[in-house]
């Protein structure tokens, strides 16, 4: 202890202290709240004082006939989002990286990045107008192809693709920026060497760029697995309706509607806890796999 | 944004009714509103005889008798910060003009046992006082979370022997005015407060009938196409067809629909379909009593099928917006604003929202309200007019004080005291109409007729017809009459802002007032364990099934499948629990 105090690194520890305290206070300490998932919450008695209820919430979840439909929808939508948001930004970043006209590259980057800052409440309003039976899409389809109007947001065939694609459009710019940053960090001598070896542009991408950012790709993919059971409440809640419950109702929206009836905080906590545990397991699994088989050390 | 506007419009509409009781100094939210009552007891005894104060026994059975010595009563207050903003300076719960008035009138001195800010803090303290059996002398019993009805709370207090039996003191002390109000509803509110023939609380009684859902129609479209206002569901269908196909807006384009409808079409508010269900005696979102006296869920009764059949036909013929299931009320409002819809079903206040947007943008738009049915009766299920009780702690020496307090506050509400009228005028002059004294003893508690508003409308009509004079109006009614109705009667469109009030009253409320109403009471308001767990998903299921049937995605017989699933997935169990709960409460 005394040695530690005399250590010339002591002031660094002091500097770390505020963060450490904040972390304990706001991240570690509130974790006791997850006990709510196993309690019968009585607001006047608080979280700690409420009686235990065992696995009642999970029984309720499992007994509900809708839970499997909701779970299926959640997985399909969130896996769809995960894949699109992994592939499209990489392609976009590689393409932007090849551009030599600076202003064009910058403007494309800004424009694709822009929707990330808009809230789904606003975007959903716009999408609802665009996709309505009197909207611009149906109008175009009708005048060009003579198709009958389709109620896109009221169709169980179209709802999931619309959710996945609109999410891709909104968020792809964000990951693109990260990949572009990774691409700039690739040593330019590698490209020069490839050029001397007579590599074409595509070959340079395949053998220099992609291996160069593979680590970042693995990192982002692993981290995004954490949210596998979150299909995006803001987006779906603002776009769905009773007709597409069959394909669009996800865990979060379902809990929102059912938890509201009896202010069931326990249910929300119970579902959140399952989501976190599954997310943690998946992250741990991918981390191990990446380390074992590809020898990537992500963290 | 639009939501907020809707809220404002509703608040404004509510204010209309509430200003009717602006004389009540107990705060603006009094449930009883403008009253037609000029009960005989309401005059004369503003100054109670002081001779009675000599002995306690002499004041016996005088409903307005003043106590010889100041009677201290412990009370509690739910401190709403919004209404506190409207207190005049130096007015607090402890000292205010109202307290002085009550001291002068009854010699009652309220002592604040505790008060807490509205919401969680108040609710916690409120529920804690039952658990710790530490009640104030007189207080208002009501549900803080909607999970149990006020009646089942009262039942628990009665079983725990925590509240006084008020049967005797009510019969002895209740004023004729108070008795008259309860009798107007066949004393059903009193029965609601009674267990085994003993009454344990004085029930509130609210103005209820005005909330019946009605049909708003564009009269200018009807006139243009030479149609009569719909009286039956078939008329409604025909008018909708004409509005769809005969180009009522005269722009040469087929851009109109028959009936505006929103996705939550079973909830009464605006652009709903409640009246259509009710016309077929279907009550899809209520607990109702069946012929055998059992309480059943309205949403699974076969009557719904007829209503769904009609709506499905309308959808098929294009009389409804093909995307109604995707649009909430505020979105549908856009269609009304742009003049695409000529009919909507909703509440009496819809003149203020959402129809006002159409009225503002189209000077020709002339919205009128009508009721329609299949058997000349307008059916509806409403919440029971009592949702709170005035109760007295067991062992309090003067339980009759509660009855006297109700007597006086009822009399205040209906302008029976010159002092309170003068005080209101004084406040208006000094501080403005939105400023109040702090309330006392029983804020926001009142009794009135179930059709108070409708009686007012009939009075207004009599005055316009020359059959009555303005002298017969109460202060609250006169305010509405002078501000919104009289200036607009000869030329309704003169003042656009007040025109909305004019049609709310003289068209919508008038249509309800002249209808033959058949009102049932929602049979259950609380919750049970399975109800908590499963009602949410069952309600989902119902909306989904009904919407699909209306949109012709499922045939009408899908209703039977839905009923079977509803029952199997917890509905039967909920129904059983609800009936058990009601049996536990002792009927009603």
UniProtKB/TrEMBL annotation, chain A:
<keyword id="KW-0472">Membrane</keyword>
<protein>
    <submittedName>
        <fullName>Sugar ABC transporter permease</fullName>
    </submittedName>
</protein>
<feature type="transmembrane region" description="Helical">
    <location>
        <begin position="210"/>
        <end position="233"/>
    </location>
</feature>
<feature type="transmembrane region" description="Helical">
    <location>
        <begin position="12"/>
        <end position="32"/>
    </location>
</feature>
<dbReference type="GO" id="GO:0055085">
    <property type="term" value="P:transmembrane transport"/>
</dbReference>
<dbReference type="InterPro" id="IPR000515">
    <property type="entry name" value="MetI-like"/>
</dbReference>
<dbReference type="GO" id="GO:0005886">
    <property type="term" value="C:plasma membrane"/>
</dbReference>
<feature type="transmembrane region" description="Helical">
    <location>
        <begin position="75"/>
        <end position="96"/>
    </location>
</feature>
<keyword id="KW-0812">Transmembrane</keyword>
<comment type="similarity">
    <text>Belongs to the binding-protein-dependent transport system permease family.</text>
</comment>
<keyword id="KW-0813">Transport</keyword>
<dbReference type="Pfam" id="PF00528">
    <property type="entry name" value="BPD_transp_1"/>
</dbReference>
<dbReference type="InterPro" id="IPR035906">
    <property type="entry name" value="MetI-like_sf"/>
</dbReference>
<dbReference type="InterPro" id="IPR050809">
    <property type="entry name" value="UgpAE/MalFG_permease"/>
</dbReference>
<feature type="transmembrane region" description="Helical">
    <location>
        <begin position="267"/>
        <end position="290"/>
    </location>
</feature>
<feature type="domain" description="ABC transmembrane type-1">
    <location>
        <begin position="71"/>
        <end position="286"/>
    </location>
</feature>
<keyword id="KW-1003">Cell membrane</keyword>
<keyword id="KW-1133">Transmembrane helix</keyword>
From TrEMBL, chain B:
<keyword id="KW-0732">Signal</keyword>
<feature type="compositionally biased region" description="Low complexity">
    <location>
        <begin position="31"/>
        <end position="58"/>
    </location>
</feature>
<protein>
    <submittedName>
        <fullName>Extracellular solute-binding protein</fullName>
    </submittedName>
</protein>
<feature type="region of interest" description="Disordered">
    <location>
        <begin position="24"/>
        <end position="66"/>
    </location>
</feature>
<dbReference type="InterPro" id="IPR050490">
    <property type="entry name" value="Bact_solute-bd_prot1"/>
</dbReference>
<feature type="signal peptide">
    <location>
        <begin position="1"/>
        <end position="26"/>
    </location>
</feature>
């Amino acid at each position: 202890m005394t040695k530690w105090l005399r250590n010339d690194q002591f002031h660094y520890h002091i500097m770390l202290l505020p963060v450490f305290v904040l972390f304990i206070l706001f991240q570690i300490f509130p974790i006791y709240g997850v006990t709510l998932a196993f309690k019968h919450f009585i607001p006047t008695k608080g979280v700690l004082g409420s009686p235990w209820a065992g696995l009642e919430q999970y029984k309720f979840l499992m007994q509900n006939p809708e839970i499997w439909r909701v779970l299926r929808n959640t997985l399909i939508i969130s896996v769809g989002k995960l894949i699109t948001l992994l592939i499209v930004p990489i392609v976009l970043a590689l393409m932007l990286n090849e551009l030599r006209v600076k202003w064009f590259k910058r403007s494309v980057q800004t424009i694709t990045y822009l929707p990330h800052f808009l809230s789904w409440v606003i975007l959903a309003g716009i999408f609802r107008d665009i996709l309505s039976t009197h909207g611009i899409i149906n109008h175009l389809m009708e005048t060009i192809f003579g198709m009958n109007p389709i109620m896109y947001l009221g169709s169980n065939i179209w709802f999931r693709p619309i959710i996945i694609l609109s999410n891709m459009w909104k968020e792809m710019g964000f990951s693109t920026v990260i990949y572009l940053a990774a691409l700039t960090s690739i040593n330019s001598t590698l490209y020069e060497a490839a050029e001397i070896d007579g590599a074409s542009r595509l070959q340079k991408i395949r053998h220099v760029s992609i291996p160069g950012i593979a680590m970042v790709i693995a990192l982002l993919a692993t981290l995004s697995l954490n949210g596998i059971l979150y299909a995006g409440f803001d987006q779906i809640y603002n776009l769905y309706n009773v007709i597409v419950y069959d394909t669009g109702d996800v865990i979060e929206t379902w809990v929102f509607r059912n938890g509201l009836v009896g202010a069931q905080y326990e249910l929300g906590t119970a579902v959140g806890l399952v989501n976190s545990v599954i997310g943690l397991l998946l992250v741990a699994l991918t981390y191990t796999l990446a380390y074992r088989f590809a020898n990537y050390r992500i963290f | 944004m639009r939501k907020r506007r809707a809220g404002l419009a509703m608040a404004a509409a509510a204010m209309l009714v509430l200003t009717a009781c602006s004389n009540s100094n107990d705060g603006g939210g009094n449930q009883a509103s403008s009253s037609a009552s000029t009960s005989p007891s309401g005059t004369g005894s503003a100054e109670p005889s002081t001779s009675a104060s000599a002995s306690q026994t002499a004041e016996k059975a005088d409903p307005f008798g003043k106590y010889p010595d100041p009677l201290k009563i412990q009370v509690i207050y739910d401190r709403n910060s919004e209404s506190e903003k409207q207190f005049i300076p130096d007015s607090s719960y402890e000292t205010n003009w109202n307290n002085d008035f009550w001291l002068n009138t009854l010699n009652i001195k309220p002592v604040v046992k505790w008060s807490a800010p509205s919401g969680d803090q108040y609710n916690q303290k409120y529920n804690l006082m039952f658990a710790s059996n530490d009640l104030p002398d007189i207080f208002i019993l009501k549900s803080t979370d909607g999970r149990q009805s006020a009646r089942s709370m009262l039942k628990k207090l009665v079983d725990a022997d925590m509240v006084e039996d008020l049967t005797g003191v009510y019969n002895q002390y209740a004023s004729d005015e108070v008795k008259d109000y309860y009798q107007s509803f066949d004393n059903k509110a009193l029965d609601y407060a009674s267990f085994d023939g003993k009454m344990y609380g004085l029930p509130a009684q609210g103005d209820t009938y005005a909330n019946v859902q009605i049909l708003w129609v564009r009269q200018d479209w009807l006139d243009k196409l030479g149609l009569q206002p719909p009286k039956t569901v078939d008329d409604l269908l025909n008018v909708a067809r004409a509005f769809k196909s005969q180009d009522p807006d005269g722009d040469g384009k087929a851009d109109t629909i028959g009936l505006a409808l929103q996705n939550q079409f079973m909830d009464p508010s605006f652009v709903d379909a409640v009246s259509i269900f009710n016309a077929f005696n279907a009550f899809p979102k209520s607990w109702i009593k069946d012929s055998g006296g059992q309480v059943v869920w309205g949403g699974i009764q076969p009557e719904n099928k007829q209503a769904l059949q009609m709506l499905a036909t309308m959808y098929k013929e294009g009389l409804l917006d093909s995307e109604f299931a995707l649009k909430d009320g505020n979105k549908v409002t856009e269609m009304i604003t742009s003049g695409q819809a000529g009919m909507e079903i909703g509440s009496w206040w819809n003149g203020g929202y959402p129809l006002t947007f159409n009225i503002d943008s189209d000077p020709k738009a002339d919205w009128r309200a009508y009721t329609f049915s299949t058997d000349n009766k307008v059916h509806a299920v409403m919440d029971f007019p009592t949702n709170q009780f005035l109760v007295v702690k067991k062992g309090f020496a003067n339980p009759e004080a509660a009855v006297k307090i109700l007597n006086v506050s009822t009399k205040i509400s209906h302008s029976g005291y010159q002092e309170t009228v003068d005080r209101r005028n004084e406040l208006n002059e000094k501080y403005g109409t939105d400023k109040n004294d702090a309330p006392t003893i029983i804020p926001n508690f009142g009794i009135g007729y179930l059709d108070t508003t409708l009686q007012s409308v009939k009075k207004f009509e009599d005055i316009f017809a020359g059959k009555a004079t303005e002298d017969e109006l109460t202060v609250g009614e006169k305010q509405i009459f002078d501000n919104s109705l009289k200036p607009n009667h000869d030329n309704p469109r003169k003042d656009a802002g007040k025109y909305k009030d004019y049609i709310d009253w003289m068209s919508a409320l008038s249509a309800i007032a002249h209808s033959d109403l058949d009102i049932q009471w929602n049979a259950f308001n609380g919750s049970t364990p399975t109800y908590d767990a499963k009602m949410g998903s069952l309600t989902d299921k119902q909306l989904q099934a009904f919407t699909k049937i209306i949109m012709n995605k499922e045939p009408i017989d899908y209703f039977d499948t839905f009923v079977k699933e509803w029952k199997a997935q917890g509905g039967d169990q909920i129904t059983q629990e609800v009936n058990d709960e009601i049996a536990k409460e002792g009927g009603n």
